[in-house]
Amino acid sequence: MHQMIQSFLEPLGYGEAFLSPIPRDASKRQYFRIEGKGKLLMVSPSSEKPEQFIRIGKLLESIHLSSPKFFEISEKDDLYVIEDFGDNTYRKALLNENEDMLYTLAVDVLSHLSKELSLKPDFLKDYDRNVAYHEALLFLEWYGHGFSEKEEEAFKNILDDLFINFPSPKTLILRDYHIDNLFYLKDREGLKKCGLIDFQDAMWGPLGYDLISLTHDVRRDTPETLKEMLTARYLEGFSASEHSALRHTFDLLNLARHLRIFGVFSRLSKRDEKHHYVDHFPRMWRHIQTLLDKNESFGELSYWFKETGVMP
Which positions ≥6 away from 113 have C-beta within 8 Å? Predict the structure, then answer.
């Protein structure tokens, strides 16, 4: 791999540049900072969908949002030179900057995105009832602690009923919109101050999916007052008559998303031995409990959790 990287970088004038590895996330991608060049080397196998990453990045750029630019590409070697947003992720920026300002910026990006992208690009798949249902079943597959066939069947029937009127896809959803995938780019103007990464799994989905991903972050406790302020700001873009239905949509998306993440994080721990992901489970269960308490339509699921003893 080292020789392949050098052969790729040398003709570009980066052969003598020092490469600093950047810690990996849950994906198989690797990143190296090309020191002093304002660029990153991305090593991304085709399983990580780099072509989709490029397509969606260009789409975001076309509506004047900040996504990493691609400078050099060698698809056959899985090597890419891309723009380096630096180290100022939202997680780091939140330690020093105004929390309300940063989150408001991120919500305004979502509002802009939903207004600018009302026609589905042909390279995006729908996040619809079927996808949400099967992703939620990851909870049974990986988090499960030996459910009986009867318990599993009951869970599937409950989800089937809950998702029967699943909201229709209406906009681009980035799918992993949280503080570790957002950068605060101080020197840029307006919405471009919010840098976006890790959107290769984006789909065409219901309004509010990314809002929920941001406000109910499984990696960080977000104050309830801030959640409500951000939700209210997002809803300003819709008529008052739509607010009630949208809030119910947000709850349903929140539930579907948490069940999926329970499955994904359990898989990362059990299969890939990345055990630190289970540290987020207590916060995720608190999110689930809040949802169950506030939404009467989740009553059967609440009962199932109690009967199976799966909920702490």
Answer: 60, 63, 65, 171, 172
The rounded distance, in Å, linking the Cα atoms of 67 and 61 is: 6
Q: Which amino acid is at 40?
A: L
As a whole number of angstroms, the distance between CA 219 and CA 3 comes to 37
Report the distance separating Cα 174 and Cα 209, nearest Å: 8
Exposure letters 206-229 (e unless 16+ CB within 10 A, then b): bbbbbbbbbbbbbeeebeeeebeb
Give the residue ranges of DSSP H helices in 88-223. Answer: 90-93, 99-116, 129-136, 138, 149-162, 209-215
> What is the dihedral angle through the alpha carbons of 57, 61, 62, 63, rounded to the nearest 10 degrees?
110
Amino acid in position 3: Q
Q: Residues 67-124: pLDDT tens digits?
A: 999 999 998 889 999 999 999 999 999 988 899 999 999 999 999 999 999 899 999 9
DSSP class per residue in 78-92 = TEEEEE---S-BHHH
Amino acid (one-letter) located at 116: E
Q: What are the pLDDT digits (tens) for 218-236?
A: 999 999 999 999 999 999 9
What whole-number distance in Å separates Cα of residue 199 and Cα of residue 50?
A: 10
Which among 248, 163, 165, 250 is positioned nearest to 214, based on CA atoms? 250
